[in-house]
Design goal:
The protein is α/β, with parallel strands linked by helices. The chain contains nine helices and ten strands.
Length: about 290
């Protein structure tokens, strides 16, 4: 009898373990499914208010309406270059809007460079929802705007901040592939790919394989056909500096890097990178 009771207890324990394992598997599957469905809401954090140049410290910039190939009309900001100077096309990160980048724009404008702060779909009162293909289309609209003004690709610098580094790299890659490369590329806190960045932040999930908007800069950076500057903070807690180093290692010459010892992800300009960026552009795109 005791032997039978013992066998029943073992069987019940095994059933409890099986139920626990099954429950854990189901929970994990549901978690993965939910995160897959809401991933863009976790990737993009647009502010919907409409920014004003003067309130952002760049009163000389003017809103311009740019039409994308997929039928959206988006507002960006533009200031023309002084005679002979290049124009910077600035692609910001995944949060806020162009108004929050006025402090970065200030040094660029004071150097006499032209500037387009690209307003993405879904950001700063613009219509649409952000995604990888859409942000590439938004960037192409900005380049088309400059082309219509007679500004050659060779006098354009693509500047990508964090998420924007993926957009800048893609457009530089497209320009080079088309035989008309841009003048230079600056990448601030770039990731090797969004899939790799997601895996870094969610190591307990198969995040690398779930990401829809991949921004695979590591696969393109060797073929941008332009001088490159990579700037990254060694204390970056959002995009680890190893990713910036991977991008730099994969790129071809001419290339320069600025590894900022005490900087995190969002405070690089507080650590004085502005003059270094201006100097890099000045060296490679002289009047």
């Amino acid at each position: 009898m005791d032997s039978a009771r013992g066998g029943i207890r073992v069987t019940l324990i095994r059933l409890d373990i099986a139920k626990f394992v099954l429950g854990a598997v189901v929970f994990y599957g549901v978690l993965v499914g939910v995160l897959y469905l809401i991933q863009r809401a976790m990737m993009y954090y647009p502010w919907s208010d409409v920014p004003v140049p003067a309130e952002s410290g760049v009163p000389e910039m003017r809103p311009v309406r740019l039409a994308t190939a997929d039928g959206l009309t988006l507002t960006s900001w533009h200031a023309p270059a002084s005679a002979g100077q290049p124009t910077i096309v600035f692609f910001h990160g995944n949060a806020g809007h162009i108004g929050h980048r006025g402090f970065k724009a200030r040094g660029i404008l004071d150097a006499g460079f032209g500037l387009v702060l690209v307003g993405y779909r879904g950001f700063g009162g613009n219509p649409g929802r952000p995604n990888e293909a859409g942000l590439y289309a938004d960037g192409r609209a900005a380049l088309a705007f400059l082309a219509a003004q007679g500004i050659a690709n060779g006098r354009i610098v693509l500047y990508g901040e964090s998420l924007g580094s993926g957009v800048a790299t893609q457009l530089a890659f497209e320009a080079a592939r088309g035989g008309n490369p841009v003048g230079a590329v600056v990448l601030e806190a770039p990731f090797s790919s969004m899939a790799a960045a997601a895996q870094h932040h969610y190591p307990y999930l198969p995040a690398y394989w779930l990401v829809k908007d991949r921004y695979a800069s590591i696969d393109k950076i060797a073929n941008i056909g332009a001088p490159l500057l990579v700037v990254h903070g060694e204390r970056d807690g959002v995009v680890p500096i190893r990713m910036g180093r991977e991008i730099f290692a994969a790129a071809r010459e001419p290339k320069e890097a600025l590894w900022v010892a005490k900087a995190d992800h969002n405070d690089l300009f507080e650590h004085g990178i502005g003059p270094a960026v201006v100097a890099f552009i000045g060296r490679h795109l002289k009047p």
